[in-house]
C-alpha cells in the first residue's frame, strides 16, 4: 500500500514536471506599438550568412564597388575584410589594426577600389592603400576637433567629405596620394552624423543632430564651397541619407522613426514649385511613418530599383518599394519585406550589394554582420 501511494505521488510529480517543461508561450508586448507588425509581406528576407569576429558594436559594413570584398568596422577599433568563397559564403581575409586609437565609426571605398577610408572617434580619417591585396595605412586626415562620424568619397574619386561631432563638414582634395583640406563648412549647429555625395558628384549633403539636412556646392568660378540650402522636416536627429540612381531624389531617416523622400525641382518646373537664384530646390514629397519602432539609423536606396532598405534601433530590417502607379509629386512606397529580429540589438547599417540585386548586408550592436538574400 505504501509502495502504491509512493508510486502514485511519483507519477503525479512526473506529470507536473512534464507539463511545466512545455515552453511558455512568449507574449510579445511592445507598449509603443498600437497595431501588430504586418506579416505575410510579398517578399522575404533570408539570412544567408552571419559573420562573427568583431568585439562590440559593428558600426558599418561596405562592399567595394565590384562587390567582391566586404569591409566592416566598429567599437573594437579594427577593420575586417571579408571575401566571398565559392559557395557564396563570406570568409575573413584580413584584420586591419593599429590605424585608430578609438572606435571606427564609418568606412568608404574609393570608386577605383584602391583605397579605403576609415572615420574614427579619435578625430582622424585614415586612408588605407590596397597594395596587391595587402592594405597599408598611408595617410591620416587630421583637423576635426573630435569624433569623425562619417566619410564619403566623391563619385570621381577626387574629393572626400568628412563630418564630426565638432559640427563641421570638411571637403578634402585628393591628388596623387596627397590629401588637402579644400573647405571647412560651419553650417550645422550640432553633431553632424552623415555626409553623402549625389551620383553626379556636384552636390554634397549632410545630416545632423540639429534635425536638418544641409546641401553644399562648389562655386565653379572661385572653387569656394557654400551651403545652398537647409531641409527641415524631421523632428529629431537625421541619421542617414541615400540618393537614388538618378540623383534627383534621396531618402533620409531619423531618430523620429520616419523615412522621408526628397525630390529635386528645377527652375521653371511645371509643378510651379518656387526656386531661388536659378538653383534647383528640394522638397519633401513623402513621409513613411508608423513602420519603425525606434530610431532609423540607416537607409539605402537600391542601385537600380526604387527599393529602400532600412536599419532600425528596434532590431529590424525592412524593405519599402515604390508602387508602379506612384505619382512623382507624391510618391507612394509600401513595406514589402521585414525581419523584425534581424539582429539581437540595434541595426546600425544596411547596404545593397552593388551588382547582385537581391543581396544586402547589415551590421549591428550584437557584434555581427549579416548577409541577406531577398526572395
Ligand atoms: C574589390 O576587391 C577585390 C578583392 O581585393 C578585388 O579583386 C576587386 O578588384 C575590387 N574591386 C574594385 C572595383 O576595386
Automatic annotation (TrEMBL):
<feature type="repeat" description="WD">
    <location>
        <begin position="97"/>
        <end position="129"/>
    </location>
</feature>
<feature type="repeat" description="WD">
    <location>
        <begin position="51"/>
        <end position="82"/>
    </location>
</feature>
<feature type="repeat" description="WD">
    <location>
        <begin position="141"/>
        <end position="176"/>
    </location>
</feature>
<keyword id="KW-0853">WD repeat</keyword>
<protein>
    <recommendedName>
        <fullName>Probable cytosolic iron-sulfur protein assembly protein Ciao1</fullName>
    </recommendedName>
</protein>
<comment type="similarity">
    <text>Belongs to the WD repeat CIA1 family.</text>
</comment>
<feature type="repeat" description="WD">
    <location>
        <begin position="185"/>
        <end position="217"/>
    </location>
</feature>
<comment type="function">
    <text>Essential component of the cytosolic iron-sulfur (Fe/S) protein assembly machinery. Required for the maturation of extramitochondrial Fe/S proteins.</text>
</comment>
<dbReference type="InterPro" id="IPR028608">
    <property type="entry name" value="CIAO1/Cia1"/>
</dbReference>
<dbReference type="InterPro" id="IPR036322">
    <property type="entry name" value="WD40_repeat_dom_sf"/>
</dbReference>
<keyword id="KW-0677">Repeat</keyword>
<dbReference type="InterPro" id="IPR015943">
    <property type="entry name" value="WD40/YVTN_repeat-like_dom_sf"/>
</dbReference>
<feature type="signal peptide">
    <location>
        <begin position="1"/>
        <end position="21"/>
    </location>
</feature>
<dbReference type="Pfam" id="PF00400">
    <property type="entry name" value="WD40"/>
</dbReference>
<dbReference type="InterPro" id="IPR001680">
    <property type="entry name" value="WD40_rpt"/>
</dbReference>
<keyword id="KW-0732">Signal</keyword>
<feature type="repeat" description="WD">
    <location>
        <begin position="231"/>
        <end position="262"/>
    </location>
</feature>
<feature type="repeat" description="WD">
    <location>
        <begin position="340"/>
        <end position="375"/>
    </location>
</feature>
<dbReference type="InterPro" id="IPR020472">
    <property type="entry name" value="WD40_PAC1"/>
</dbReference>
Amino acid at each position: 500500500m505504501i509502495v502504491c501511494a509512493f508510486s502514485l505521488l511519483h507519477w503525479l510529480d512526473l506529470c507536473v514536471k512534464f507539463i511545466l517543461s512545455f515552453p511558455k508561450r512568449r507574449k510579445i508586448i511592445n507598449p509603443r506599438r498600437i497595431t501588430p507588425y504586418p506579416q505575410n509581406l510579398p517578399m522575404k528576407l533570408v539570412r544567408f550568412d552571419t559573420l562573427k569576429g568583431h568585439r562590440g558594436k559593428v558600426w558599418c559594413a561596405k562592399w567595394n564597388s565590384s562587390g567582391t570584398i566586404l569591409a566592416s568596422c566598429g567599437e573594437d577599433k579594427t577593420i575586417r575584410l571579408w571575401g566571398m568563397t565559392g559557395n557564396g559564403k563570406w570568409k575573413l581575409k584580413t584584420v586591419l589594426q593599429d590605424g585608430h586609437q578609438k572606435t571606427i565609426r564609418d568606412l568608404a571605398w574609393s570608386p577605383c577600389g584602391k583605397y579605403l577610408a576609415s572615420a574614427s572617434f579619435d578625430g582622424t580619417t585614415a586612408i588605407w592603400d590596397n597594395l596587391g591585396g595587402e592594405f597599408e595605412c598611408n595617410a591620416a586626415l587630421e583637423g576635426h576637433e573630435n569624433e569623425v562620424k562619417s566619410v564619403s568619397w566623391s563619385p570621381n574619386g577626387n574629393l572626400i567629405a568628412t563630418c564630426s561631432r565638432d559640427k563641421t563638414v570638411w571637403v578634402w582634395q585628393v591628388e596623387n596620394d596627397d590629401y588637402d583640406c579644400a573647405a571647412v563648412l560651419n553650417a550645422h549647429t550640432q553633431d553632424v552624423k552623415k555626409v553623402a555625395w549625389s551620383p553626379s558628384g556636384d552636390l554634397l549633403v549632410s545630416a545632423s543632430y540639429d534635425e536638418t539636412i544641409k546641401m553644399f556646392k562648389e562655386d565653379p568660378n572661385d572653387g569656394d564651397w557654400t551651403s545652398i540650402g537647409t531641409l527641415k522636416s524631421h523632428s529629431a536627429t537625421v541619421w542617414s541619407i541615400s540618393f537614388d540612381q538618378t540623383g534627383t531624389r534621396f531618402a533620409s531617416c531619423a531618430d523620429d522613426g520616419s523615412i522621408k523622400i526628397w525630390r529635386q525641382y528645377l527652375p521653371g518646373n511645371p509643378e510651379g514649385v518656387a526656386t531661388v537664384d536659378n538653383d534647383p530646390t528640394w522638397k519633401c514629397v513623402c513621409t513613411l511613418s508608423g513602420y519603425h519602432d525606434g530610431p532609423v539609423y540607416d537607409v539605402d536606396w537600391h542601385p537600380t530599383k526604387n527599393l529602400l532598405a532600412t536599419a532600425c534601433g528596434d532590431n529590424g530590417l525592412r524593405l519599402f518599394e515604390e508602387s508602379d502607379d506612384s505619382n512623382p509629386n507624391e510618391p507612394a512606397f509600401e513595406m514589402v519585406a521585414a525581419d523584425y529580429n534581424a539582429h539581437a540589438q540595434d541595426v546600425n547599417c544596411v547596404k545593397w550589394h552593388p551588382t547582385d540585386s537581391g543581396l544586402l548586408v547589415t551590421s549591428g550592436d550584437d557584434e555581427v554582420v549579416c548577409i541577406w538574400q531577398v526572395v
